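Backbone shape codes:
***
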Amino acid sequence: MSLTRWPQTRQLLGAVVILALLPAGSVIAQEMVLPEPLVQEHTLTLREGTWGGTMTPPGGETEEITYAVKTVDGELAITLESRLFGTVPATEIRLWHRDGKGSSEMAIIQFSWTHGPTMDCTLWLHEAGSYEGECKDPSGESGYLTMVPPQGG
């Protein structure tokens, strides 16, 4: 795990497992629960419209991707579209933030999508409202996605 991602990962998980190595190869694990205000799901929404971005599949070339973001029956819906796999809906969409006030200071979006193996994605908010992060398949192979919001208000 990258040290630059440690604070974000710790806050996303809500708990930290502390490992201690003892003589003879024994290991003790102690879970430390973080304060609730650091990890809460919130009803934040993404701006509706066509988002742009890139996708770098495991071992592949980076290519353009679009995301259709909209609200359907009160729920956030995202559809990914690329030349490589066509149109695929995102599932299990969750938006997270750092505190209970809807701050986007540490916003995270998580979702899954399936074209072949299911990819589980965790994207972190960056400047200008874009998100970027890793997607992993069940074997542990990972790729990279960016999401750039639509222009305008």
Notes: The domain at 41-147 is CATH 2.40.128.120 (Lipocalin).
